[in-house]
């Protein structure tokens, strides 16, 4: 099964990285519109605690969405690789003047400040990157397992927060993914063309 997952990962990353810049720009704009409409449809109090991420490796560009969410006065958080176990994520508040550093994958993250860490269950939304997704909302990540290990504590119960939302290009959808026991399925995946909900 791991070989099949690796094959899908390689194939979809290649497709994703071949998208022209013009298409990436249009996709980023569509993501901003689709996610803000999704928020409005929930008819809940305006200000939200939202964990997001910086795009990498051809992922759907989140920069326009980040700026839009700031303008709407939401509080944003970025993932920080846990400094002690190196296997899970913390979510630290992110503002325009937050001091940043590159992690060992070369992705920028806020410099660790424990007073700015948000407990997982205090987040309203957790926006997650993915390499591929299927018709049942299953998600295939980059293979590091950071999100799955971080969410393992929630996976045991029927939690209400945060709502997990995957972000992806439409070309990242496949019919079915080979699933492992630790995989956390998503109830919502947003692409530039459609909002999938299960």
Entry keywords:
alpha/beta, NagB/RpiA_transferase-like, ligase, 5-formyltetrahydrofolate cyclo-ligase activity, globular, magnesium, seven-stranded mixed β-sheet, Rossmann fold, 198 residues
Order of helices and strands: HHEHEEEEEEEHEEE
Quaternary assembly:
single chain
**Helix/strand structural class:** alpha/beta
Average pLDDT, rounded to a whole number, is 91
Alpha-carbon distance between the two ends: 25 Å
The CATH architecture name reads 3-Layer(aba) Sandwich
Count of helix runs: 4
Low-confidence stretches: none
The dominant shape is: globular
What share of the residues does DSSP label as strand, in percent? Answer: 15-25%
Sheet having the most strands: 7 strands, mixed
Rg (C-alpha, Å): 16 Å
CATH fold topology: Rossmann fold
Name given to the CATH homologous superfamily = NagB/RpiA/CoA transferase-like
Enzyme class: ligase
Binding site for ATP: 5-9, 139-147
Binding site for substrate: 59
GO molecular function, one term: 5-formyltetrahydrofolate cyclo-ligase activity
Can you put this structure into words, describing what you see?
ATP binds at residues 5-9, 139-147. Substrate binds at residue 59. One of its GO terms (biological process) is tetrahydrofolate interconversion. By secondary structure, the protein is of the alpha/beta class. It has a single domain (2-197), classed as Rossmann fold (3-Layer(aba) Sandwich). The protein has helices at residues 2-17, 21-41, 63-71, 146-155, and strands at residues 49-51, 75-81, 89-93, 100-102, 108-110, 125-128, 132-133, 139-140, 163-167, 188-190, 195-197. The protein has a seven-stranded mixed beta sheet. Strands 4-5 form a two-stranded antiparallel sheet. The chain starts with a helix and ends with a strand. The model has no long low-confidence stretch (mean pLDDT 91).
